[in-house]
Amino acid sequence: MAVVQKVQSRRGGKAKPALKVPSTLESRVLDTSLAYSIRRAQLSTYQDFVDYMEKFDMRPAQFTVLVLIHANPGLRQSAISEALGIQPANFVPLLDKLEQRGLTERRKVDGDRRSSALYLTRKGEMFIEMVEQEHNQMDAKLAARLGTRRTGQRLRLLQEFTAGSGR
Strand, helix or coil at 52? Predict the structure, then answer.
């Protein structure tokens, strides 16, 4: 049910009734929608990520690529783009930006002139260690919303859910 509140007209005339958004909205089907709930959680955590990583000028896709290269040095760029579901045409500019910042390098793969293996530079290794520390602080803040046990449960369920999607 909407609450009516009087507001002054922009033209300085008489006050006109305006709708005030209620503190709780009836959301019907959304209350039981898994897709909607996951998306709302993603939006909430995405903004936290942006806020934490702003000082590093780091976007989520860039962070993910750096973490994967750090954990898997020498992996072909096609393997990383495929694992993340990023089209090669979109992945190349992402890598270009990381290279321009001096964080990554591409090396030719022996016996395959078309493939490149990805590595972090020394600067990239130091950078990702700093960024991962900040990410861990952010994760701890997010986990505090649910508590350690419930966070672990949700994380396992989300990983299972993602693995079941075939993507």
Answer: helix
